[in-house]
Amino acid sequence: MLFYNAPEEDLQFLLFEVFRAPEHWQGAEETAHLDQALAQAIMTEGGRLASEVFCPLMQSGDAEGCRLEGGVVHTPSGFRAAYQAFAEGGWMSLAGDPNFGGQGMPKQLCVALEEMFFAANAGLYLYPALSAGACVLLAAHGSEAQKGLWLSPLYEGRFSGTMCLTEPHAGSDLSLLRTRAVPQPDGAYALSGSKIFITGGEHDLTENIVHFVLARTPDAAPGNRGLSLFLVPKILLEADGTLGARNGVAVGSIEHKMGIKGSATCVMNFDDAKGWLVGEEGRGLQAMFTMMNYERLSIGLQGLGTAELAYQNALAYARDRRQGRDPAGMSDADADSLLVHPDVRRMLLTQKAFNEGGRAFASYVAMMLDQARYGATPEVRDRAGRFAAFLTPIAKAFFTDRGLECCVLAQQVLGGHGYLAEWGLEQCVRDTRIAQIYEGTNGIQAMDLADRKTAREQGRTARELLATLRAETAGEEGPWAKEVEAAFAALEAATAALVQGAEGDAYFAGAVATDYLELVGLVLYGWLWQRMVQTAERAAAEGRVTPVFAAKKRATASFFMAKLLPKVQLLKTTLEAGSEPVMAASF
Ligand SMILES: Cc1cc2nc3c(=O)[nH]c(=O)nc-3n(C[C@H](O)[C@H](O)[C@H](O)COP(=O)(O)OP(=O)(O)OC[C@H]3O[C@@H](n4cnc5c(N)ncnc54)[C@H](O)[C@@H]3O)c2cc1C
Predict the structure, then answer these.
(1) Average pLDDT value for residue range 483-493
(2) Cβ neighbours of residue 425 closer than 8 Å, sequence gap 6 or more
């Protein structure tokens, strides 16, 4: 059976040593209520909930799945109680707006918890993860009246939220959406249409479900500019906020799918459903992007979390399992632990290096998101916002691609036993696969980065980020200075090649987008690994982390620098090959 231990020591190291987050928290009025002791206590409690309440339901939730009966979706046994514990513990409101009952915690703390909950049970955590994004959306774009009515029950976990974008003929291309929203005399709208693949569209965990729906008003412009955003509840509310009549929205069916079987993926039919405009008419997609960007980082954390779960279980297995002999060993045992075999060590170290690197990356992106909100000056906020926008597609795609890769490696460590359901590793592989697909496929993330956020702005943010990373490492006699500088130089050259290649070649950015995203991801991990080792060794010398912790960081970093970072040079070469090899072929 799968087990999960929250990586608390590593998370504390990142927050308190590498990024010195409490200094930032204390420096901003909005987050001054949070100090190290409180953050530590929150992480401990979150880790306990994840490992003791969420994780034990992971495999049973997969085996049982969701079932639709008489218009009601039943989640797997135990999910309701676990969700209740989550809601009653106040976890839904952690990042919420304090004016409406939220706790106003910074993103950098929240990502630590998101990783834990996703790791322990992605199928279950998807329900609150969608609700959290819906809250962020409503807090940013809702009217005061809408926020007053809907935010508190969402924060309390009594209501949950969904995002309703996809339609049968409109997936990546939202400009094709057809769901209609007709204005009504009372100021509301009547929505009609069908949405598919809606996560948590119907379930038995909450009293009510609040759908955020992209739809088109009758005289709307074609394409993305004609889309508006609507709040459509499953159950309408009376003026005092109590539950009223059932709205015209119902689940048509639920999907039978490869993984995350505890998460209900629903076809939702809107039949003159009553909805209210959120934000301005025609600016729905811009508003929805607030939720999409939130969820993109969140889904990245799903990939990272499941990879960590798989790693922990693969490592425990490798310690225990005895097969073959240490090639250089003289032990008396009939067979040695799998850990003596270089190839098994390669698989485990690849997972460890990507997971810990990814955790540091997530923390860095979250710090940028916090600085974009609470930074001391407009310049700081503006720059952090641009960095966060640049890094978000990388977090989504790089974490989830590495997530699948690492889950497959973890499965491989178990040999044939990894293929069996009882050990849970095959579930990790199945569960994590979707993270590469939904919330904008990884191909779409790569295009967002390479085209919109790099080529079209002449590489400005990429160069600015690179200058910042270089400035932060300048003058430090860090380990692997040569390797990291070579990676920086490759990024610089690849960015220039991308910008230049995209001029006059409409296919260039698309053809090299995934190479570019992978390259930037690896370079940032290289920078973070260097920084983690320097910080760990300083903290060990000053007695704040153990020498063993620092030594493990150095050993994993050595592996990353020698075996994974050099792939940057290969990616630069394939990027420079441009679009011709991709577009010349005919099918
Ligand atoms: C389990 C599950 C849960 C989901 N939850 C939700 C949800 O809660 N709400 C919601 O609205 N949707 C949800 N989705 C839908 C999901 O976001 C879409 O499946 C996804 O965005 C891709 O759309 P598509 O399936 O139509 O694929 P398509 O858009 O048809 O894409 C097919 C392939 O073509 C590529 N492609 C398409 N266009 C381009 C382009 N311009 N450039 C480069 N490559 C391109 C894609 O990368 C992909 O590889 C969910 C899907 C699943 C399976």
Answers:
(1) 97
(2) 310, 313, 314, 407, 410, 411, 414, 418
Nearest alpha carbon to residue 568 among 527, 516, 530: 516
Distance of CA 30 to the CA centre of its chain: 24
User: Under a CB-based contact definition with an 8 Å cutoff, are residues 133 and 291 in contact?
Assistant: yes
Ligand 1 mean position to 172 CA, how many Å?
Answer: 5
Would you state the pLDDT for residue 288? 96
| Residue 587 CA, ligand 1 centroid: distance in Å | 23
198 lines ligand 1 (CB under 6 A): yes
Q: What is the pLDDT of residue 479?
A: 84
Ligand 1 atom nearest to CA at 441: 47
- Distance from the Cα of residue 414 to its chain's centroid: 27
**Catalytic status, residue 9:** no
Q: What is the pLDDT of residues 376-387, one digit of tens each?
A: 999 999 999 999
Ligand 1 mutation target, pool 166, 285, 582, most atoms within 8 A of CB? 166
Q: Is 32 exposed, middle or buried (0-12, 13-18, 19+ CB in 10 A)?
A: exposed
First to last CA, the chain: 46
Cβ 164 under 6 angstroms from ligand 1: yes
CA-CA distance, 550 to 541, in Å (whole number)?
A: 9
Cα–Cα distance for residue pair 292/573, rounded to 1 Å = 32
Q: What is the C-alpha separation between 551 and 547, in angstroms, rounded?
A: 6
Residue 260 Cα: closest atom of ligand 1: 1
Residue 405, Cβ neighbours under 10 Å: how many? 16
Catalytic residue (choose from 202, 439, 483, 492):
439
Task: Give the amino acid at 228.
Answer: S
Give the distance (Å) from ligand 1 centre to CA of residue 437.
Answer: 6
Which residue's CA lies nearest to atom 24 of ligand 1?
171
pTM for this predicted structure: 0.97
Cα of 432 from ligand 1 centre, angstroms = 15
pLDDT at 333: 77
Q: What is the pLDDT of residue 474?
A: 75
434 lines ligand 1 (CB under 6 A): yes
> Judging by beta carbons within 10 Å of its beta carbon (0-12, 13-18, 19+), is residue 74 exposed, middle or buried?
middle
Decide: 176 in ligand 1 pocket, CB within 6 A: no
User: Is 121 close to ligand 1, i.e. is its CB under 6 Å away?
Assistant: no
The strand ranges marked E within 336-482 are: none
Q: Tell me, what's the pLDDT at 459?
A: 98
Which amino acid is present at 152? S
pLDDT in tens, 489-500: 999 999 999 999
| Residue 224 pLDDT | 94
Residue nearest to atom 21 of ligand 1 (CA): 440
